[in-house]
Amino acid sequence: MFTHQKPIGSGFGAATQASDLILGFDLSGKWVLVVDFFHGGKDVAQVF
């Protein structure tokens, strides 16, 4: 089955870094679960 994908206009794209995603959020005292560690999850975990 083929599904057409369309941009959602989030302002983020393929070059967006994990640090860009959490900019402005206070995550103090929060827990984060990072899955898929081998496909970019390591970079995300380092940001948190």
Shape category: extended
Q: What is the radius of gyration computed over CA atoms, rounded to a whole number of angstroms?
A: 14 Å
Number of helices: 2
Strand content is: under 5%
Largest sheet: none
Structural class: mainly alpha
Low-pLDDT sequence parts: none
Q: How far apart, in Å, are the first and last alpha carbons? A: 36 Å
Compute the number of strand runs: 0
Share of residues in helices: 25-40%
User: How would you state the average pLDDT, rounded?
Assistant: 81
Order of helices and strands: HH
What features would you describe in this structure?
The protein is mainly α and 48 residues long. The chain has two helices and no strands. The N and C termini lie far apart (36 Å).
Provide a brief overview of the structure.
By secondary structure, this protein is an all-alpha fold. It is 33% helix and 0% strand.
